[in-house]
Here is the input.
Amino acid sequence: MADADLLSEIIAARGLDRKDPRTIPGLTLAYLGDCIYELIIRSALVEQGIMHVSDLNKAAVAQVRAGAQAKLMQGIEDKLTEDERAVYHRGRNAKSASIPKNASVAEYRAATGFEALLGYLYLKGETGRILELIAPEQDRTGCEK
Here is the structure.
């Protein structure tokens, strides 16, 4: 038997019903998408062989901060489907209670939209699409690989 995706396993193990991601608020999608992106980045860093926690944290923060996410979003926005673009805009335009001190309002809103998109795709079971969108043509520092 093939492995189910993580979300399906979580839903089954907890006896939950799958929600339609189109009905979930943008900030809620962003909340989940933030975790998904952090998991992907942290997993990749460990697989790259970085083993000291301080080095892992420094490398992860550089990639998951709002400015880096906003820059990544600029590079992929033209690759989004109409549905994905609508979710991004819904997350970007959501009213948040706070702005991080190390990001501009524009960067923070773009990052929130990006995270909402990832949360939406995760809930749809489209992890392959997430990885396709964030596949580094450049590494997260902006340097060519």
Notes: Confidence is low (pLDDT under 50) at residues 138-145. The first helix runs from residue 6 to 14.
